[in-house]
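The material for today's practical consists of a large collection of protein records. Read left to right, the backbone structure tokens trace the chain's path through space. An example says more than a description, so a record of this kind follows:
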Amino acid sequence: MPSTRPLTRTLRIVRLADRLLKQSEIEHPPVSTDLLHRCHPDLKVLPAALGQADSLLKIDQDASGRVHRAAIYFNDRRPIPRQRFSIAHEYGHFLLHHHLLADADDETPPSDRRVEEEADLFASSLLVPLWLLDTHCPEVDYSPKNRTELDRISLKLASLFNVSRACMRRAIFQLYHLRKVYAIAPGPGSDPRPT
């Protein structure tokens, strides 16, 4: 019997992002990264000269794992959508993986593809929540023959949500599959937001 662990973890990450959005009363795009400060006032988000790196999470914690100070540094020479995604990505590490730092010798968690994918999932779920995208995204055929229309829609929505086109294409793809597989389509006046 296949394990449901990855799906369970995915749902937990998406729900965590949704709870933060609900706490911050987000109702329209773009989602402001200021919500990080509202949810974690001691977490600093600062621009920094990081060379080729997009961002860095630094956490000071004691042996029991209690966080004393935390800061997200982002490369302010990157385009704004990249900066926003990098900040949300590091925030995902802060919420999901800071316990891994207790065993690490430097500031970043061990390079693990699963850990990075989880932080990416959190960032995209925070910046492009599917319940919010659903209110702005028309029904779309996600097939190669419809590439021009998909590019037009993803460019428009990427601008609205202030994210990269790649991030938006992934979100539209996820929404397309949810609509197709689960026949999810909120009716007029309904609120697709999770409760």
